Amino acid sequence: MSRIALILLLAVLLLSPPSPPHKTAARVAGSLLVTAHPLPLDSDDPALDHAGPFRFLGGWQLTSTHADFGGLSSMLIHPDGSMLGLSDSGTLFGFSLDGKTGRQFVAPLPVRPAEKDLPGWTWDSEAQVFDPATGKHWVSFELIQRICRYSSGFASVESCKEWPAVKRWPETGGGEAMVRLPDGRFLLFSEYGYGKDGGNDVLLFQQDPAESRSVPPLRLSYRPPQGYRPTDAVALDDTHLLVLNRRVTLHEGFTAVLALVKLPPLRAGAVLVAQDLARFAPPLLADNLEALALSTENGRRVLWIGSDDNHEFFQRTLLLKFEVPVTLTQ
Predict the structure, then answer these.
(1) What predicted TM-score, i.e. pTM, was given to this entire model?
(2) Which of 57, 77, 226, 232 has a 20 to 30 A CA-CA distance from 97?
(3) 34-323: which CATH number, 3.40.1000, 2.60.40, 2.40.160, 2.120.10?
(4) Tens digit of pLDDT for each residue in 214-243?
């Protein structure tokens, strides 16, 4: 009960306005050592190997002695299996499960010179997408309500834009999930911005959302599972998304639902409807699940799910790995 009480207190704090600006220690790039502790999918039934239609390939609790590690809000999986995580305070993590593949590092996101002294909580980076053709990244920031594009390898900030449609969302419930569709368009999901039908606001950017000259986005709506809110999403193909949805209650603490969305024709007013696929609640691995990523291994599609521990001692940074069934979009 004490753990659930702490979780509920945290949920309240997460929805509260940020603290006043204060001076924080400068964050610098450095090396990172992450330890992966294997976990079963179900603590009551270690033999369980499925969550809904997804076959369980592994689960880990990630730990590190580095003070900046944690707060995982989004992630990418490189072809070599190494991972690039982004925290909700603008910190990048390069790591791998074996501790050897790829670069192992921690580094702050690059910022514009005029903003280099802003406090760390300003950079509430909640979502990222990647274009493998150019190496460019896009990041959605919740508190400052902007979208930025970064050059390959996050070497520099190329462009940022603060859209009026995003500014209408609550500061602590804005651009929580972002998807780049195969045709180059972007979808940005609000966590607590609501449309007329009661669904979560979604913005469709038909051009680069970090460019001022791009046309304004179209307003859509997302209907999540009852009581849940979107935290991340990935595109399976031109017409299907996987959306991760989160809830916190007194009875269960943090739980999540992974849902499939079959995209309708994307025009103003279109409604995206979630179809529940898998639920994550104790005794299954569950925490503040916020991050999704896709990769390919030996011709099979793999889904990764990560959790944000909010840098709290009673939460965990979890990493879950599943095989995506080929029949999911058929």
Answers:
(1) 0.93
(2) 232
(3) 2.120.10
(4) 999 999 999 999 999 999 999 999 999 999
